[in-house]
Amino acid sequence: MSSYEDYTATSAHYDATRVPIGTEIILGCLARGPRPLSEQVLVDAGCGTGNYSRALLDHVAHIAAVDMNDAMLGVARAKMEEAEVAGRIGFHRAAIDCLPMDSISADAVMINQVLHHLPDDASKGYPLMRKVIGEFARVLRPGGVLVVNFCSHEQLRRGWWFFPLIEATAERMIERHAPLLELESMIVASGFDLCGRFVPTDAVMQGHSYYDPRGPLDATWRAGDSVWAMLSAAELEQVQKRVRDMDARGELENFVADHDAERVHVGQATFLCARRR
Known about the structure:
Blueprint: H1 7-10, H2 14-17, H3 23-30, E1 41-45, H4 51-56, E2 62-67, H5 70-79, H6 81-85, E3 89-93, E4 106-112, H7 127-139, E5 140-150, H8 153-158, H9 167-176, H10 180-189, E6 192-198, H11 219-222, H12 233-248, H13 252-260, H14 263-266, E7 270-276
Parallel strand pairs: 1-2, 1-4, 2-3, 4-5
Antiparallel strand pairs: 5-7, 6-7
């Protein structure tokens, strides 16, 4: 469960602007596992509305989709009712630091844009993040694959056109993300060997809606990125006034183009692949 976003409310709008990116990267990582893809048990840790589970469902034997939010799980279950009845996916309301699975029972774990939602403490070295990664190590078989989809600090600073509108909030969001090298170190310390780092530079998490210059004025659009949940009502009002003012002056579309220019060089997400020792 997110420590700052109300996903019970967000669940109704989340899929309107959010798409699973990098699924081909995830499949490539899973192919490094101890068994053929078609025989693998995959854990989707923090599955949300199930977009990644649905994208990978036909490629693996079974998915254990885990999330703490009932509303998000309800949306996910509605998408994959037939697969659940057929036993190809199971939905579990549980915390990702205490997975409802036996030790050494999974072939792969994926976690997509979830770690920064933990109520963690950067000043103490992200202890909850370390605990979660250790839990992944517990449930994986030797040779099992872990895929972590997250944002590097560079990507957060350069990969979103609207972050310059919310600089103070963006910095608070950045602090919730462990630095890339520190995260890799956590993974290794938890019993994994790193085997790849991948950046899909052409992918955007909100799909085509990401480019909407008036998006910050729309609650449904904002639901596609949890950073907006960190703004106070007064902060959001200031951002929206700035957007309206730029729009009135005919400057808004150029603002988006100028501040999106670096994204194609850094991307919005990084995928780490590791194997359980």
